[in-house]
Amino acid sequence: MAKVRDMMTLQLIVNADDYGRSPNVSRGIRQAHRQGIVTSTTCMMNFANVADDLSHALQETPALGLGVHLVLTAERPLLPPAQLPTLTTREGTFPRLNGFLARLDTINPAEAKAEWHAQIEKFRQLTGRNPTHLDSHHHTSYFSAGLFRAMLELAQEYHCAIRQVTAQGDNLEMAGLPPQILQQTRTYAPRLLAEFNPPRTTAFYTSFYDDQATQEELLR
Questions:
Q1: Domain residues for 153?
Q2: Are 32 and 16 a contacting pair, CB within 8 Å?
Q3: 108, 140, 181, 214: least CB-packed within 10 angstroms?
Q4: What does the pLDDT read at residue 216?
Q5: What does the pLDDT read at residue 195?
Q6: CB neighbours of 216 closer than 8 A, spacing ≥ 6?
């Protein structure tokens, strides 16, 4: 969940990620938009159901913001695994989060950028437009300077926003990052944000989630 300050007006963006993960997840997000407060979602473009789910979104929820949830830790890549040797397992799939963290020091950011580019291009082919913004599954785009730069370059190329890297403003209270990643992110994130200055929210709150997605938490 994020807040954007535009002059004196505070705009609330309530984002639901994982669109396309399953028909039920996507249906729930559309329902939360029509009957609740969800204003945008980010799509997992390497999942089997995403084309049908995006078709439903375009028809049923035209006002729902649609971004791309960049994936490196679930299912199979869109590019051939042979082109992504540092990102994929022997079976040609992406590793789970723990496996991704175990290989983080050997990951080639150029491979991540190429795969993310393919995911964004698939989104554009299915929707006819650029994504509203980019974020990443398990926050992997914030796990190293190389991965963060790759996402920032893609946001620049496609003229879209990114999800704020910090949990609140620019105080570098990192949002959901593993402890072992946190310290190095504090070092490179401000520098890269200053270099690219991507459109982004002024604050990002992770607490409005699951059992904490309540009116009391929203107003806290």
A1: 2-70+107-219
A2: yes
A3: 214
A4: 84
A5: 98
A6: none
pTM to 2 decimals? 0.91
Residue 76 placed within a domain: no
Residue 89: inside a domain, yes or no?
A: no
Average pLDDT per block of 10 residues along the chain, 220 residues long: 56 94 98 97 98 99 99 99 98 97 97 99 99 96 96 99 71 61 84 95 78 79
Give the CATH number of the domain where residue 135 resides: 3.20.20.370
Amino acid at 209: Y
Q: How far apart are CA 203 and CA 57, in angstroms?
A: 27
* Main-chain phi, psi angles of 146, to 5 degrees: -65, -40
Helix (H) or strand (E) holding 29: helix 23-35
Identify residue 32 by its one-letter amino acid code.
Answer: A
| 14 phi and psi angles, rounded to 5 deg | -110, 110
Count of domains forming the chain? 1
Asked if residues 90 and 103 have their Cβ atoms less than 8 Å apart, the reply is no
Strands (E), 20-116: 40-43, 65-70
